[in-house]
Amino acid sequence: MTRHFLRDDDLTPDEQRAVLDLSDEMKADRFGHRSLAGPKGIAVIFEKNSTRTRVSFEVGIAELGGHPVVVDGRMMQLGREETIEDTSRVLSRYVHAVVWRTFAQQRMNAMASASSVPVVNALTDEFHPCQVLADLQTIRERLGRLAGVTLTYLGDGKNNMAHSLLLGGATAGMHVRVAAPDGFVPDQEILASAKQRASDTGGSVAILADPDAAVEGANVLVTDTWTSMGQENDGMDRVTPFRKLQINADLVSRAESDAIVLHCLPAHRGWEVTDDVLDGQASAVWDEAENRLHAQKALLTWLLEQERQ
Ligand code: CP
Ligand code: NVA
C-alpha cells in the first residue's frame, strides 16, 4: 500500500519512533545506507523558496544511492495548465517518490490522491512535517527523551510550524503549548486532531496567550517567522501583537534551566528571536538544521520499505 507523509499524524506513534530511530542510525553512519540504490529517481519540486529543504533532500537522496530530480515548480506545466492530478499520474511513471513544497494543503492532498508512489510534504501553508521530524530528533538527542517533555511554541499559532509541532509533538507524547496572539491561534480541526492523538500517547496540547505562563516549566522553546512565505501582503499586522512573544534572554530564563531553543530557520534576528539566544548556549538550531538531512533520508527509506510490504 502506498504511504504518503502529508501531515505529521500520517505516522502512528510507533512509526514515528521507527523513523526517528532510523534517522539516528543514519546520522551515526552517514554513508552506510544505500537504501535507494538502483538508482531510484525522486522528484523534489519547489513552488516556494528554500535553502535547507532543497539542499538536504538533494544531498540525502544522493547519499542513499538515489537520483534527485530537483525542479522549480514554477517552470513545470503545473504552473501553466496541467492539473495537479495529471502531473501526479505522469510523475508516478518516472520516479519512486515525489517531494513537494507548495501552498495550500489541498494541493498536496490532490497530488497524493492521484499518485501511485509516496508523496512527501516539504512544506505547505498548513504543515511542515519533515521539519518536525528533525526537531524531534534534536530534542531526543539533547534531552534523552520525547514523551513527557514540555515544548512551548511562541509566535504565529496558525502557521505550518505551529500545526506540525502540535501534531508531531502529540504523536511523540509531548506536552505542546502554543503561545499566540488573538487571531493567530491554531486551526480548530488540527487542534482537535492533536488533542485526540495526545489522548492516545499521554501527551497534551494547550493554547495560551501569556508568554511567561507558557514558558514556565518548559524544556523546549520554539519560534518561527511572524510572516510566512505567501503572507507578505496579507494586510495583517504581523509585528505589534507578536512583540511580547520574542524569544530573548529574559524569556529563556523563565523556562527550565536546561531548556533548549529551536527555530526551523531562516531566522529573523532581532524579531522573533534575539542574536544572543540564537548564538547562545541554549540554541540547538544548527543541529536541528543538520538533522533535516538524516530525518528525511530515514523517512524516504521507511516509506519505500512500506511499498515492498
Ligand atoms: N526550515 C526550512 O524548511 O528551511 P528552508 O525554507 O530553507 O528549506
Ligand atoms: N513558517 C515558515 C517556515 C519556513 C521554513 C514559512 O512557511 O515561511
Automatic annotation (TrEMBL):
Pathway: Amino-acid biosynthesis; L-arginine biosynthesis; L-arginine from L-ornithine and carbamoyl phosphate: step 1/3
GO biological process, one term: citrulline biosynthetic process
UniProt-listed NCBIfam families: orni_carb_tr, PRK00779.1
Enzyme category, top tier: transferase
Pfam families: OTCace, OTCace_N
EC numbers on record: 2.1.3.3
Domain Aspartate/ornithine carbamoyltransferase Asp/Orn-binding: 148-303
Organism: Tamaricihabitans halophyticus
Keyword Cytoplasm included in the entry's annotation: yes
Keywords attached to this entry: Cytoplasm, Transferase
Annotated Aspartate/ornithine carbamoyltransferase carbamoyl-P binding domain residues: 3-141
A cellular component term, taken from the record's GO annotations: cytoplasm
Compartments, as annotated in UniProt: Cytoplasm
A molecular function GO annotation: amino acid binding
Name of the protein described by the UniProt record: Ornithine carbamoyltransferase
Reactions listed under catalytic activity: carbamoyl phosphate + L-ornithine = L-citrulline + phosphate + H(+)
